[in-house]
Amino acid sequence: MKRVLIIRSTGFQHLDRILGRLKDSYSQSEICLLTHQHGKPLAEKYADINHVYVYPHTGAFSPLRVPDELVREVFDVVIVPVGNITGSGFLNVLLLSFRIRADSRLICNISLDFRPLTRLALIISLLKGIVFTVIAGVITVVTSLLLLLLWIVSSLSYGKSED
Predict the structure, then answer these.
(1) What is the pLDDT of residues 62-95, one digit of tens each?
(2) How far is 109 from 87, CA to CA, in rounded Å?
(3) Which DSSP letter does residue 39 get?
(4) Are 25 and 48 in contact (CB under 8 A)?
(5) Domain extents in the chain
(6) How are strands ordered across the β-sheet holding 3-7?
(7) Distance (Å, rounded) from C-alpha 44 to C-alpha 73?
(8) Is this structure's pTM higher than 0.90?
(9) Is residue 70 within 8 Å of residue 56, measured between CB atoms?
(10) pLDDT in tens, 116-137
(11) How far is CA 49 from CA 73, 80, 108, 119, 149, in A?
(12) What is the CATH number of domain 3-117?
């Protein structure tokens, strides 16, 4: 029997849709869920979920704080739901998934597209994010300097025209 862990990083509506899709691929599997304490009561009501693990820390999931309960566990698949198309903004959860022992990892976006999540793909995503941040910073600085220069020149020329 395969063991599947879903890290609940999005709303329960997304989880509903994911569970519906998993019935086809993982019908004979043990489905487990990692959620925060406030999500446990609702998660335990799902007939499709065999076990609910509670993330014992408040705040966002962190790869530095893996629940003790999960350190010993091994899963066939870890699924990371993300609330957009690309997975941007979910880096902490993606990194946490690599701290949990599993044969494979999948990222599931809001459109229910399941894609393999590999260390290489995560590193490339990180590097792209860094490059885009640097480019945005450079563009902001250059634009600000040009606008400042334009303002200084216009202030000087405005002051001369009054004389």
Answers:
(1) 999 999 999 999 999 999 999 887 777 788 999 9
(2) 7
(3) G
(4) no
(5) 3-117
(6) 51-55, 30-36, 3-7, 74-81, 101-108, 114-116
(7) 19
(8) no
(9) no
(10) 999 998 888 888 888 999 999 9
(11) 16, 16, 17, 27, 61
(12) 3.40.50
